[in-house]
Specification:
This protein is mainly α and 285 residues long. The chain is built from eight helices and two strands. Helix 3 runs antiparallel to helix 4.
Length: 285
């Protein structure tokens, strides 16, 4: 009973604080008219200059507003629905909650560690921490249930999708750091000190995706458990990329054909298949 109460507390706190910062991030649009700045490598960088993301680059500031829109329209409702299902059907509820917590963990880890500092930094950290413990608690409970039932997926394409998704994401994110290592060309990092998303995805998301596919092929319950966070994260990237691209276009950014195909289209396709995979696994519970 204590664990359930803890999960509810983590979920409600994550939802309330996320709604609070997302609403402000999306709708508070004071224009600070910031001048262009020169980064540590001597490059001229234009800042977004609007709202709480004013000191981010135009690309990241606009993308953050798109992310806030998705949090409000999809993330928070999904969290509420997951909590309601958890109350009536524990397995299905834990499945959705673990994935939803993973999405908030991934998102607010990014906000806490990689975007320009703003007044809501401490709130990002709280959501980051709450969602992290939410993922741990829900996956631990779900793993106990799945191992007791020895639940295994039937022969399906999902393990192959997970492995391919991990390989594609790994290749896309590895291009910049490998090019830099071999040829000494520093990637475009704007005002940011390092490539946070590349590091997080290459170190954590890519290996988990590939391992979950391997375990699932062996019909091991751990395959399902490991797949839930990465499938939910990649699924939520679909609306996030659409919303972020819209706000970036509104801010005047133009993407090259290589960027559109390499990142936007690739991750949109992966997101669609991620959603189909989640739905199929959910129906087996």
């Amino acid at each position: 009973m204590y664990r359930k109460s803890t999960v509810y507390l983590l979920g409600l706190t994550t939802g309330f604080l996320s709604m609070f910062v997302a609403l402000i991030g999306l709708f508070y649009q004071e224009n600070l008219n910031l001048p262009d700045v020169i980064n540590t490598r001597g490059e001229l960088v234009s800042l977004y200059g609007i709202g709480i993301y004013a000191y981010d680059s135009i690309m990241i500031g606009a993308a953050n507003r798109g992310t806030d829109l998705v949090v409000i329209l999809i993330g928070i409702p999904l969290l509420i629905i997951s909590l309601l299902i958890y109350k009536k059907r524990e397995e299905q509820g834990l499945f959705l909650l673990s994935g939803t917590f993973a999405y908030f963990f991934y998102l607010y880890a990014t906000f806490s560690l990689s975007i320009a500092y703003n007044r809501f930094f401490i709130v990002y950290i709280i959501i980051f921490g709450m969602s992290f413990f939410g993922v741990i608690l829900t996956l631990l409970k779900l793993s106990h249930i799945l191992f007791q039932k020895a639940l295994m997926t039937q022969k399906t394409w999902i393990p192959y999708y997970l492995i391919i998704m991990g390989l594609i994401a790994g290749i896309l994110w590895a291009v910049d750091p490998i090019t830099s290592l071999l040829f000494g060309a520093i990637p475009k990092m704007s005002i940011y000190p390092t490539l946070y998303t590349h590091a997080f995805d290459l170190a954590i998301i890519v290996p988990i995706s590939i391992l979950s596919g391997i375990f699932m092929r062996k019909k091991h319950p751990l395959g399902i458990i490991l797949s839930i966070p990465v499938l939910m994260i990649i699924t939520m990237l679909f609306p996030s990329i659409l919303a972020s691209t819209y706000f970036q276009y509104q801010a005047g950014l133009i993407f090259s054909p290589q960027e559109i195909i390499g990142f936007i289209v690739s991750f949109l396709i992966l997101g669609i298949f991620g959603f189909i995979s989640l739905r199929q696994i959910y129906r087996t519970l």
